[in-house]
Design goal:
By secondary structure, the protein is α+β, with helices and mostly antiparallel strands. Helices cover 23% and strands 31% of the residues. It contains 17 helices and 33 strands. The protein has an eight-stranded mixed sheet, with helices on both faces. Strand 3, helix 6 and strand 4 form a beta-alpha-beta unit. The longest helix has 16 residues. 37% of the residues are buried.
Length: 696
């Protein structure tokens, strides 16, 4: 006949829990359950409600008295219980019994240097005595062991148990390399909250803890859940809709349903409170359910972990065969109704939640074997790294990786340390391809290497260059043309190196040496050594630098010559006239008699459409035109025809603009390739006469 811990708690379990806490299961706990004064006070309250001996007075409508239901609700669900209350400052005795929870807490947990306190926030909702809904934020507390693992075990203690309820199991997980989060259930051990709910709200808290851990580690962090007693039932209920990061869970001594109407197994309770033997458990459960529905929002039958097992999460069920409160048949039924991969461990002689104490070796071996089976991943490959070096580098100077990335058979990638590289075949003097194998340091027991795969690094050693040579016979190029620099790199024996890794690292730099870049663009060079020029590229000397690896370089001079002519512009400060000439002699003469040298006006082609120059002997001004009719017309009215001054390019050349000053009778035409100069004169009321001709 099935019995469970749920009825124990419902049927005025204040005294049955006293019995449980006096057992070996709870030997380490510091609950104030042995206070005779408090127990007497509780009996007095019941007697005042008319409950004494075999007398359980019913109300006129046949209901149990409210005072009795109030006591059950307060004792079972109220966190701040005067008899069973745990806070965060549990007392650890100076000399705890070896192997006890206190002993592990003091001698193991408190000696760790990677522990911290974690907190999350959620809300608590209930109704007060007036029926008003109360909602307020609460903070939940956990204790974290950080092993920098990609897998975290989250442990949930039992009903009104101390946070170190699972400290021995925490040690198993931590020593196997997992992160461990030991959470405190709401209302206990430093976690805030007024009421306990046997998993109804705690299941949501557990999923919040999972989300928090994933957010603080990695989106693909693997989570292992483990719960003891009520914590086991919370664990099962939390995964009715599986969390994507939960890889497996272990439930130890959980109940299947909170209440099933059975009263067997409570003789010790009845000895203390004989009136319980006369209470109809179904009536008690119904009245308590109505009260919990009004107070906390749920009925007792809604807490049924057995309805949360229809998922594929791997599960390990653990139960003591001597458990009288929640018999082993409960675990067997949970196991039978569970889907997915599952294992069941029943421990001979183990009372409730005491399977570890009964057989720690079997418990540990079973737990580790289960985790090894459901979590194990095999190394499928290592990332292949390749390095290029120059001969002459010793092993000590090679930048061999200290960590490599391994790919596991589940598709995940993870870094692992390399303790040693095998470099015995390396010869620093001989170019070639060398492959080193490494030995890894893998502390993650869930990662296996059945094929004994090893990481490799390939070192490709290249001849060391000593000199760069230029093979071009001519290093001169005219505007608008290209020149390919033909170079080679030589080794220490003055032999050309044809290794593409070497030749591809040759870089070119081209900067002006004497070329005037004020009004003309620079020549350029690309990564292949091709020098490119435009029709108006600045002429003169350029410094070409050829480099390898910033260590070896060759510098030479490249000359850019003109395929056109510089047209000089001069200015007469006395008359305001601008004069244009190709003749250096004419330019120098005018400078000697006071004209200002305004340098190059623009580049003109050496052939093309003629531009004619005329001179007015009356005003002393010069006029330039590409229009032969205009040239002849002015000649007919007294202008002196001076012949071809220069040539105009085709219409795709550089436009030369002509502007006219209507306010002057002489020196009233100006020619410029500069748009800004043209626009400036137009703003001064000069007239735009368009493009007169074209430069290069």
């Amino acid at each position: 006949m099935k019995r469970n811990i749920g009825l124990l708690l419902i049927a005025c379990c204040f005294l049955s829990l006293q019995t449980a806490y006096s057992s070996q299961t709870f030997a380490d706990e510091k609950a104030d359950v042995n206070s005779e004064q408090k127990m007497n006070e509780l009996k007095q309250e019941l007697e005042q409600a008319g409950v004494k001996g075999d007398n359980v007075p019913l109300t006129a409508d046949g209901q149990l008295p409210d005072a009795l239901i109030d006591l059950v609700i307060n004792f079972v669900f109220l966190a701040d219980n005067p008899i069973l209350n745990f806070n965060e400052n549990i007392e650890i005795s100076e000399n705890p019994e070896e192997g006890s929870r206190d002993w592990y807490t003091k001698n193991w947990y408190q000696s760790l240097d990677n522990i911290s306190i974690r907190t999350i926030e959620t809300t608590e909702t209930y109704h007060d005595s007036s029926g008003n809904q109360v909602t307020h934020p609460i903070k939940l507390t956990g204790r974290y062991i950080d092993n920098k693992s990609d897998t975290t075990a989250i442990l949930h203690h039992g009903y009104r148990a101390n946070w170190n309820d699972l400290i021995r199991q925490a040690k198993i997980f931590a020593e196997d390399g997992f992160n461990v989060l030991i959470i405190s259930s709401r209302g206990l051990n430093g976690s805030e909250g007024k009421y306990l709910s046997f998993g109804y709200y705690e299941q949501d808290d557990l999923n919040l803890w999972i989300d928090n851990e994933v957010n603080q580690t990695s989106s693909d962090q693997r989570i292992i859940l483990m719960g003891l007693s009520m914590g086991a039932s919370v664990t099962m209920m939390s995964q009715k809709n599986p969390h994507p990061n939960v890889a497996a869970y272990i439930e130890d001594s959980g109940y299947d349903v909170l209440f099933n109407g059975d009263t067997s197994g409570f003789d010790e309770v009845f000895e203390q409170f004989p009136f319980l033997d006369f209470i109809d458990p179904e009536q008690l459960a119904e009245q308590v359910s109505r009260r919990t529905k009004a107070l906390l929002g749920f009925r007792l039958e809604e807490i049924a972990p057995i309805d949360s097992l229809q998922n594929s999460i791997p599960k390990l069920f653990i139960h003591g065969r001597a458990d009288t409160g929640t018999p082993v048949s409960v675990a067997e039924e949970l196991y039978a109704k569970s889907q997915g991969y599952k294992e069941l461990l029943t421990v001979e002689g183990a009372e409730h939640a005491a399977s570890y104490e009964a057989d720690p070796e079997l418990y540990t071996q079973t737990l580790q074997a289960f985790l090894d089976k459901v979590l194990s991943r095999n190394i499928s490959s290592f990332n292949q790294t390749e390095q290029h070096i120059l001969t002459g580098q010793t092993v000590d100077t090679l930048n061999l990786p200290k960590n490599v990335t391994m790919t596991l058979d589940d598709g995940r990638q993870q870094e692992v340390s390399v303790s040693k590289w095998d470099t015995k075949n390396y010869d620093e003097k001989v170019p070639g391809k060398y492959t080193f194998t490494g030995e890894i340091e893998n502390s993650d027991v869930t990662i296996k290497n059945p094929k004994n795969l090893q990481p490799t690094v390939t070192i490709i050693s290249h001849p060391r260059p000593e000199k760069i040579s230029i093979l071009n016979n001519e290093l001169e190029i005219s505007q608008g043309n290209q020149l390919s620099i033909n170079s080679e790199i030589l080794d220490g024996n003055q032999k050309p190196i044809t290794d593409s890794w070497i030749t591809n690292q040759i870089k070119y730099q081209l900067v002006s040496k004497t070329a005037d870049l004020t009004n003309n663009p620079s020549a350029t060079i690309d990564e292949t050594g091709l020098i490119d020029t435009q029709e108006n590229t600045a002429t003169g000397d350029y410094n070409l630098t050829i480099l390898f690896n910033e260590e070896i370089k060759k510098e030479i001079t490249v000359k850019i010559t003109s395929n056109g002519q510089n047209l000089y512009r001069l200015y007469n400060p006395n008359t305001g006239e601008h004069f244009y000439t190709l003749s250096t002699k004419e330019k120098n003469h005018l400078i000697s008699i006071g004209w200002h040298d305004e340098k190059n006006a623009w580049m003109t082609p050496t052939s093309g459409k003629e531009v004619w120059r005329l001179y007015n002997p009356n005003s002393g001004e010069h006029f330039y035109t590409a229009n032969k009719d205009e040239y002849n017309q002015l000649g007919n009215i007294g202008w002196r025809q001076e012949g071809i001054a220069f040539y105009s390019a085709e219409s795709n050349g550089q436009p030369i603009y002509r502007v006219y000053n209507k306010n002057q009778t002489a020196f009233n035409h100006h020619y410029t390739s500069n748009v800004e100069e043209r626009d400036h004169l137009l703003r001064l009321d000069w007239q735009n006469e368009g493009v007169a001709f074209y430069g290069k």
